[in-house]
Write a structure and sequence with these properties.
alpha/beta; Isopropylmalate Dehydrogenase; 12 helices; 21% strand; binds nicotinamide-adenine-dinucleotide
């Protein structure tokens, strides 16, 4: 039987730097745990534009559809800011999400104890925090038609359309209910049913699925503006939150910052199962290409490494190995190894990107 396959798209800026550490970790799992993957590598974003004039070639897109999981670094950078919208690096990412139909974006916001002091909130509010935000990723106002900038009555008007079908709400809600069952069994569905018809439908569909198929999961509903307030007031009240594309974009960034640093935040985007039963999936850190620090060995590789841990859990049924990797990251932080983003200036010498990767490998060795 062939090994499970992963397509690595390191991308731009710090993407290749942090991905280098993930490759070391994959090597460790191969030799120490016998977890073998068929690895493929290709270009995305600005790197693909430089080589091929497009942020994602059709060949790369086809490969992404073929493999068991895609692991992406980051895309973008100032060199590409003036490109036409249609060929900007981010279009490569959007194409992957859309064509792989990755409708459920999982964004954990977990506060490692050693980093609780880094949150902008009081330590006691975030210590032990463990939220999962499920954001609908392929519909809603980032994709709805009509969209564009049009002339109307002698002036320009910018239009985007918030649009959700019942089946789009149904599938992301089910993904969230299933996750809640594996966690603390609580799901909060977030919309603005008070002012938006799409929100009214969202609430109806989620309520119906909950009553029919997930009566064991405690379901609550919240308006998105209230959810933003609650996230900074008492974030630990939440377990799983499910919401649409636009609110999810904003709320997941808000929740992310509760945990301290962008350099620690992984994500997974999941689609419908393939023939082999695995969901179509792409894993990527939440952060971007960080042009301000790229090429200097300063990037924190943890977010990308933790994204690989999510791949182990959600694509490859290796929950125990995912736990092992997450525990290794936690141990390294608890022992005091920090990249620059996790230190106050002038409080010692930060670990470099590769030193952080090496420390995580040492902690993995110690776990055997
Ligand atoms: P960014 O996430 O790249 O950086 C924001 C800040 O966080 C910077 O100060 C950066 O140095 C720091 N940071 C980010 N990741 C870090 C890490 N792993 N370790 C240490 N510090 C880290 O966001 P930005 O500056 O708004 O965007 C830069 C570029 O990245 C833009 O071109 C943007 O379009 C792109 N971007 C891409 C993605 C993606 O690929 N998914 C996401 C966001 C932004």
């Amino acid at each position: 039987m062939s090994n499970p396959s992963i397509l690595i798209l390191a991308g731009d800026g710090i993407g290749p730097e942090v991905m280098g550490e993930v490759k070391k970790i994959m090597g460790w799992f191969d030799t120490a745990r016998g977890l073998k993957f068929d690895l493929y590598e290709d270009l995305v974003g600005g790197a693909a534009y430089d080589a091929h004039g497009t942020p994602l070639t059709d060949e790369t897109m086809a490969k992404a559809q073929e493999v068991d999981a895609v692991l992406l670094g980051a895309v973008g950078g100032p060199a590409y800011d003036d490109l036409d919208f249609s060929i900007k690096p981010e279009r490569g990412l959007l194409r992957l999400r859309k064509e792989m139909d990755l409708f459920a974006n999982l964004r954990p916001a977990q506060c490692f104890d050693a980093l609780a002091g880094f949150s902008s909130l009081k330590k006691e509010l975030v210590s032990g925090l463990d939220i999962m935000i499920v954001r609908e990723l392929t519909s809603g106002s980032y994709f709805g038609e009509p969209r564009g900038i049009f002339e109307e009555n002698g002036e320009r008007v910018g239009i985007n359309t918030q649009r959700y079908t019942e089946s789009e709400i149904d599938r992301v809600a089910r993904a969230a209910f299933e996750l809640a069952r594996k966690r603390d069994n609580r799901l909060c569905s977030v919309e603005k049913a008070n002012v938006m018809e799409s929100g009214i439908l969202w609430r109806e569909v989620v309520t119906k699925i909950g009553a029919q198929d997930y009566p064991d999961v405690e379901l609550s509903h919240m308006y998105a503006d209230n959810c933003a307030m609650q996230l900074v007031r008492t974030p630990k009240q939440f377990d799983v939150i499910v919401t649409d594309n636009l609110f999810g974009d904003i709320l997941s960034d808000c929740a992310a910052m509760l945990t301290g640093s962008l350099g620690m935040l992984p994500s997974a985007s999941l689609g419908v199962p393939m023939e082999n039963g695995r969901p179509r999936a792409m894993y990527e850190p939440v952060h971007g290409s960080a042009p301000d620090i790229s090429g200097q060995g300063l990037a924190n590789p943890s977010a990308c490494i933790l994204s690989f841990a999510m791949a182990l859990r959600y694509s490859f049924d290796q929950g125990a190995e995912a736990d092992r990797l997450e525990a290794a990251v936690e141990k390294v932080l608890a022992d005091g190894t920090r990249t620059a983003d996790l230190m106050q200036k002038g409080t010692g010498k930060p670990a470099s990107t590769s030193e952080m990767g090496d420390a995580i490998i040492a902690a993995l060795n110690a776990s055997l």
